Structure formats: C-alpha cells, structure tokens
Amino acid sequence: MIQPLFQTEDYARALLIGGGSPKVEEDVAERMARQSILDRAFVTAVLDEEVLRRPIGSPAIMRDQLSHVLKVAERDNVLVHVIPATFDTGAYPGLDGALTLLTGDDFGEVAYTESLGGGRLISSPREVAEFAILFTRIMGAVLPAGQSVALIRRVMEEAFQSDDDVAEE
C-alpha cells in the first residue's frame, strides 16, 4: 500500500474495505487527520514500485492517488523515494511493512510503522535509533528523489494513457 500519510480518502477507503475493516469511515477519518503532520514535520518516505502498480479501488482512484503522491512529493519538507522492482534490488530490509521516520519541533524524532490492524508511533530513543538504522539500510536500495518522481509519473502515464481507461470503470 502507499504510505498512509500520502493516501487520498478514496484510496484509503478502498484499502480498508478490501482489508475487511469493521469501521471503514472512522479509520479513513483517522488516516486523513494524521496527515496534518505533513504541515509540521520533515518526512522521508520510501515506496516500493509494486505499490504504485497495484490496482486499488478503480482506475480513477489510482490515477488520483498517484497524482496526489506527486503533489506531496513537491513539498519542501517531503522526500519521496521509490525502490525499483528489479532483480538487482530483490528483497530488502523493510519489505514487510511501512516505516516512516519523522522529525519535528513539537515531538523530536519518532518512527511510525503501519501494518495490518493499525499503526504504531515509536518515540523511545533506543527504538527510534534501531528504526533509523533499518531505514538507512533501506535507503541503500532507493532511487534518488528526482528519479523516483519520474518513475511515479511514468507508472501513472503507463496505467492511464488516456482518459478512456478511467471512463471505462
């Protein structure tokens, strides 16, 4: 899935419905509220190329979601990197779940992980340091930010070569 901090409402809703959440609208509202952190923190996020290509919801939802990721990536306080789906990359640390490191004046350094059943905010300095090491290892597999944005744009263009793709839903 695409990093929860970068999800649109429709994409989050489709994920939660597909995942069988018993409280979809409450969970969507919670995810959207968490996105306010983008207004007060520096965020570096890593997306696996496969999540950009996984069809969630509908063509229109995916087009809007990828467009939204591109808009978020334009923010001065956000870096988005993509790990390319290649045999050279293969399996890498962190493949089993979303991880975000956040730094802000209000809360210092924290890590946030998202997995089935919810997310976990980690503020213990020792645990944050362990996640920072893991994140550094993950960063060894990423494309630079500019190439990452270009890849997201290319995936979006490949998937939605014309508005007919979206109109056919």
Task: Considering the chains and any ligands shown, give keywords for the structure.
169 residues, alpha+beta, 5-stranded mixed beta sheet
Structural description of this entry:
The chain is of the alpha+beta class and 169 residues long. The protein is built from seven helices and five strands, in the order ααβααββββααα. Helix 1 packs across helix 2. The two termini are 21 Å apart. The relative contact order is 0.17.
Q: What's the average pLDDT?
A: 88
Largest sheet: 5 strands, mixed
Sheet-strand content, in percent, reads: 15-25%
Quaternary assembly:
single chain
Give the fraction of residues assigned to helices. Answer: 40-55%
Strand order of the largest sheet: 2-1-3-4-5
Which class best fits the helix and strand makeup?
alpha+beta
